[in-house]
């Protein structure tokens, strides 16, 4: 069992290297992963379930007692970013399907992997899990609504089908895991979640690799416009951290909440967006969505280091906690408030 858990830790600590490798494999060997496409929805539902096992309904109660950081994180990630992406994307790119992909990229809920980075920098995990759950639960409504409002005039959106898929992939697994953790008084967080974590991370790798097969034709026929999309997505992804960090300063948040708000504002559940893009949109829409996987974990590492002075009062030369990070139970090693 210890070896199995080390597999999960190895994957988590090396995502910045693994994700580009997955993209290369998917793009270069699309036929090798074609058989996995029917399993993507099930694998993603499992990932959501495992990632939500640390949550409980008390987190929601705590978050709602002081909802400002949660509301700001959701406003930045699921209102401001889609609007900015739609406005600038429409000015820079002529293909409406590419613009739809940009809007979809920034309409998806906050990434489950945000909890990993928030744990590394000893953020407020209750706020993180509460915000993540709310973002996930409203996504079956907000994603179709955002797409319909911003790009519905030019791109056909199957709102009913998308709503059902979001329920199956995200909302229902998240609710089931939260209810199970609540019913067992947190025992599944300590017992079941660590056992499932390595498999969930393997599934993340397989989902990313399988979805990236749709980029094969684009990457081998890269045009100046598509290259511009890659630069644009990198800039947009970076701006999420800047918006989030600026909000923490304006709100004068404590360090733990500042960590959580910053990462929640920027990290997106790109795999969910890729599944939706593949099921409901033309191939061109997939490109900006999957391009986000090039930068998601990499930029989290970069901006974590950039903001490390503010995030970690007791840090080593790498900007991380000198004692290391337990991403599953960060509260146990959380330093005193700054």
* Cα gyration radius (Å): 19 Å
Global shape: globular
* Unreliable stretches: 315-338
List the secondary-structure elements in sequence, H or E: HHHHHHHHHHHHHHHHHH
Task: Walk me through the structure.
The chain has 338 residues and is an all-alpha fold. The chain is built from 18 helices and no strands. Helix 4 crosses helix 8, helix 6 packs antiparallel against helix 8 and helix 13 runs antiparallel to helix 14. The longest helix is centred in the C-terminal third of the chain and has 28 residues. The C terminus is likely disordered.
In a few lines, what is going on in this structure?
With 338 residues, the protein is mainly α.
Write the layout of secondary structure elements.
Layout: H1 2-13, H2 15-28, H3 40-51, H4 57-65, H5 68-92, H6 96-105, H7 114-120, H8 125-151, H9 159-183, H10 187-190, H11 192-212, H12 216-219, H13 224-251, H14 255-266, H15 270-280, H16 283-291, H17 296-306, H18 308-311
């Amino acid at each position: 069992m210890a070896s199995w858990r080390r597999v999960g830790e190895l994957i988590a600590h090396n995502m910045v290297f693994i994700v580009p490798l997955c993209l290369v494999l998917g793009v270069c060997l699309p036929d090798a992963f074609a058989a996995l496409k029917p399993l993507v929805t099930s694998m993603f539902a499992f990932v959501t379930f495992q990632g939500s096992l640390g949550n409980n309904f008390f987190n929601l109660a705590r978050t709602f007692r002081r909802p400002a950081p949660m509301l700001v994180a959701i406003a930045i990630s699921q209102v401001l970013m889609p609007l900015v992406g739609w406005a600038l994307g429409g000015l820079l790119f002529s293909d409406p399907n590419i613009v739809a992909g940009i809007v979809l990229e920034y309409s998806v809920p906050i990434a489950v992997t945000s909890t990993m980075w928030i744990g590394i920098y000893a953020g407020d995990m209750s706020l993180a899990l509460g915000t993540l759950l709310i973002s996930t639960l409203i996504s079956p409504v907000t994603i179709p609504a955002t797409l319909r409002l911003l790009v519905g005039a030019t791109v056909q959106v199957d709102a009913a089908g998308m709503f059902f898929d979001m329920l199956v992939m995200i909302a229902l697994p998240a609710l089931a895991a939260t209810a199970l953790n609540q019913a067992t008084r947190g025992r599944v967080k300590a017992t079941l979640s660590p056992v499932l974590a390595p498999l969930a991370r393997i599934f993340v790798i397989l989902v990313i690799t399988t979805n990236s097969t749709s980029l094969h034709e684009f990457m081998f026929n890269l045009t100046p416009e598509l290259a511009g999309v890659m630069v644009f997505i990198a800039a947009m992804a970076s701006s999420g951290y800047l918006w989030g960090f600026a909000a923490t300063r304006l709100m004068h948040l404590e360090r733990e909440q500042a960590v959580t708000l910053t990462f929640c504002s920027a990290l997106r559940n790109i795999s969910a967006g890729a599944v939706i893009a593949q099921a409901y949109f033309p191939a061109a829409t997939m490109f900006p969505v999957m391009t986000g996987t090039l930068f998601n974990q990499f930029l989290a590492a970069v901006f974590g280091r950039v903001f490390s002075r503010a995030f970690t009062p007791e840090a080593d030369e790498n900007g991380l906690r000198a004692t290391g990070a337990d991403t599953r139970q960060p509260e146990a090693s959380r330093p005193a408030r700054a």
